[in-house]
Amino acid sequence: MSWDFVSLQQGIDDAGSPMRLLWKPDAGPWKPPVVADEYVGWAAEQEAWRSGVTLADLSYHMSDTFLRGPGAAQLLSDVSANKMDVFEIGQAKQFVPVAADGNIITDGILLRDGAESYVLSGVPAAQNWVKYHGEQGGYDVEFETDPDRSFTPGDPRLFRMQVQGPAALELIEIAFGGPIPETKFFHSTPVSLAGADFRALRHGMAGQAGYEFIGDYADHDAVKSALLEAGASLGVVHVGALAYATNGIESAWIPTPTPAVYTSPELADYRRHLGLFTYEGQNPLYGSFYSDDVSDYYTNPWELGYGRSISLNHDFIGRDALKAAKESTERTKVTLEVDPADAEVMFGSAQTYGNNYGRHRVEANGALVGLTFQTARIAPLGTVLALALVRSDQSTPGTEVEIVWGNHPGHGTAPDADLGFARIRATVRPAPYNEYARTAYRRD
Fold first, then answer.
1. What are phi and psi of 6, to 5 degrees?
2. Do you find a cis peptide bond into 32, omega within 30 degrees of 0?
3. Which of 163, 196, 348, 431 could be bridged to 252 by S-S, CB 3.0 to 4.6 A?
4. Can you state the angle between helices 220-231 and 168-176, rounded to 10 degrees?
């Protein structure tokens, strides 16, 4: 059976507006596909990356786009704020593409794996942006995309396994018979284990030192078994989907910024190019903050904390707007620490898992001062943390705020209607919340 292509623009037109397409107050939280929800329990798995060592199998939830050709570096430079002329083979960068208005398309991880070859990984929105401009601009680049395994059968092209926690380096020394070559943050080194050759990327997501091992999926089982065996004496904990979905909170990575592609007339052709059943067409918005204008959900890289990845010393789409936004940005990324007595109102008892990507109102003295982007129970802390963008004058650690907790029904109900939502007491804390991530994570 063949299916007719339905574009994102057609979906918006049929729904009546971008918000009427995207607003889904009954949406459940995302979690990685394929891997088990829990192995030893989500709470114990959260604890393990703080006090022991964990292995997380990341092979299934990211889309990968492979770029090959002499025009790849120029294309990536033209469509992102990243500095491409200083980029070693084996190095990775936080990829930062923006629209002409300076707002982010979504980030990704860009790895240079050869003289003229790169791999862009993460949610597909940034990859769609790169491919579109590469094809429309006539760059000498070939693309191949391996989608995530949420709806795609078969094995992925690459395996990814992340080892992290205070004992991560000890596990690695046991597995490899000694320390692997010293590697700077977001750089990689070739390694071998269990008869397989692959790459060790210095990276982690839970605020602890660690490595992400990346290689041919044919070697997945052998490498994973070897790492688990090496960690047995250290009590290595296999991380499941539930715990993994929360592990960016303490390191302050906002995982689902809304792509800034829905409103600009200049991007109408792009919206007609994108399918409706894509990340851009299906990633839901929900929470207590509602606006009929989807641009109220856009974010820029400065407020997301990507300043260290931005280079304004080259021409790229959105450069002038992004440069102006550096001085005009009024929001700061913070962590909100929920009063433990109110945490049960959000997710139930302290033994109950909770994770939510809603855009919930953050208020001070009854006035809107920001939005949450991810809220989750962190069992070792005995409470809930939320990543939020708040007005800069409310971002000082120790500031008391309230999270308005509930799901606005959407279009047809006044954005400021009194819907009886719970008001959750919270205190502003730094982002990253984890001290190691805040002070030492990128030191090298």
1. -120, 125
2. no
3. 431
4. 120
**Residue 213, amino acid:** F
> Is the pTM above the cut of 0.85?
yes
Q: What are the residue ranges of helices labelled H in 249-300?
A: 268-273, 279-282
**111-156 pLDDT tens trace:** 999 999 999 999 999 999 999 999 999 999 999 999 999 999 999 9
Nearest-angstrom CA–CA distance, 63 and 68: 17
Q: Phi, psi (5° rounding) for residue 399?
A: -65, 135
CB neighbourhood size of 93 (10 A): 22
CA trace torsion 262, 265, 271, 272 (10° rounding): 150
Nearest to 104 by CA among 259, 321, 323, 330: 259
> What's at 131, amino acid-wise?
K
Q: What is the 3-state secondary structure (H, E, C) of 336-355?
A: EEECHHHHHHHHCCCCCCCE
- Where helices occur in 220-297 by DSSP H, the ranges are 220-231, 241-244, 268-273, 279-282
